[in-house]
Specification:
Helix 1 packs across helix 2. The protein has a single domain, classed as Vaccinia Virus protein VP39 (Rossmann fold), CATH 3.40.50. It contains seven helices and eleven strands. It is globular and about 40 Å long. 30% of the residues lie in helices and 29% in strands. The longest helix has 20 residues. It is an alpha/beta fold. Helix 6 links the parallel strand 8 and strand 9.
Amino acid sequence: MERKIIKTADGSVTIHLPEWDEQYHSKHGAVQEAQHVFIKMGLHHFLKQNLKPQISILEIGFGTGLNAFITFLEVQKLPLQFKYTGVEAYPVTSEEIAALNYAENLSAEKENWALQKMHDSPWEKPLQISANFCLLKLQQKFDKINSKDEFDIIYFDAFGARVQPELWTEEIFKIMYAALKKEGILVTYSAKGSVRRALQSVGFIVERLPGPPGKREMLRATKN
């Protein structure tokens, strides 16, 4: 499938799939969306509620590495250990990686080495990116995840239900529920009623929250 690098409203880039008319991130701002949905409503929310020395994060749709990179930048100042697992069935290419401008957009040029290291790291093998951030990339489809009570936070960043409805079903969310620890959370940019109902049907407590720029709402689901 053809993929094109495009610039979003906040100046950061994303990958556009013309055949689906779908992007890896919001056209209203790739960095803004990641910071709001996954960092503010996910990571920051969890850390306010939980004091624990090690945090495990699962990302559904590693893609360009944007969510992992922003998380890395956020946690370098924290006295905690982070284990970050990114799942991706179709990795981005080296040419696409070279076109990413996230470090510049985030005023983190000095840390761009970390994003490059994330993409250079081998699949299926954990790699210590920094003293407190370990990355494991898994090249597989989401329905093959078999983790149990392993993660504190899930960044659910799959392509939208309009183009890949099979990724937003009860079957997938059962896998996510099983993978989370008790009181773990799942955050996603989606606010579709069908997604909310599917999450609730497998046991999640679901909140509607204000969405990122260009989107009215998003969802956060908690395993009780």
